[in-house]
């Protein structure tokens, strides 16, 4: 017979898991493949070239970046609203910011901001090759990562700070509820995934070692959702100004 405390734990954790699941689904579905030829399309539209990365959702529908050096903005029924050129050879990264502004990476290390009408507002050389799609923080600042670099830019294209790190993993950086960023490192610590937590102002706050090898990560309102090579999953968040395990399933009952 279960103890009352067990039921309280389940009642507390289950709604949290449901709230976070929608945030995590995009990460889990990233590797899912569907044979387009076996599907009946609701509509078709023509864009300029082949998509270099997945489309991003916007308030009007979606935007897609193509190897024809173009961004196409479309409604959710496939109507093309506009097509605009990007200033350079596009890398496979497209980030949608607040109010449908779009951020691209061109020629390896140039950030470009496009307004909701498709016009480029500014471009900035970040001085290192970008390895993943830039991330927008909760206060609007933009985080950009290289193999051993992290820079922070304002919405006006001004570099606010830059720091160097150990070589970073290709896992996406995750934002925590206090606005700090968890950046995963390439080199494991004792066979376990290591990471650093960086403040929104560029200060390294702590070194983190997880209990296993992290295979995917996704931010949600309650913290950072993780899956592990051993089949487990968990949520970490900020407690007493440090990163702590909130819950874990199918593992050793903790993340750290």
Structure overview:
Helices cover 10% and strands 41% of the residues. With 256 residues, it is mainly beta. It folds into two domains: 1-28 and 168-256, no CATH class; 51-164, Lipocalin. The strands form five sheets. It has a four-stranded antiparallel β-sheet, with no helix packed on it. It has a four-stranded antiparallel β-sheet with strand order 5-6-7-8, with no helix packed on it. Strands 9-10-11-12 form a four-stranded antiparallel β-sheet, with no helix packed on it. A hairpin with a 5-residue loop joins β13 (174-175) and β14 (181-184). The chain is globular.
Topology at a glance:
Layout: H1 4-29, E1 56-57, E2 61-66, E3 70-75, E4 80-85, E5 90-96, E6 102-106, E7 110-114, E8 120-125, E9 135-136, E10 142-145, E11 149-153, E12 159-164, E13 174-175, E14 181-184, E15 194-198, E16 204-209, E17 214-220, E18 223-228, E19 233-239, E20 242-249
Antiparallel strand pairs: 1-2, 2-3, 3-4, 5-6, 6-7, 7-8, 9-10, 10-11, 11-12, 13-14, 14-15, 15-16, 17-18, 18-19, 19-20
Describe what is shown at a glance.
The chain has one helix spanning 4-29, and strands spanning 56-57, 61-66, 70-75, 80-85, 90-96, 102-106, 110-114, 120-125, 135-136, 142-145, 149-153, 159-164, 174-175, 181-184, 194-198, 204-209, 214-220, 223-228, 233-239, 242-249. It has 256 residues and is mostly beta strands.
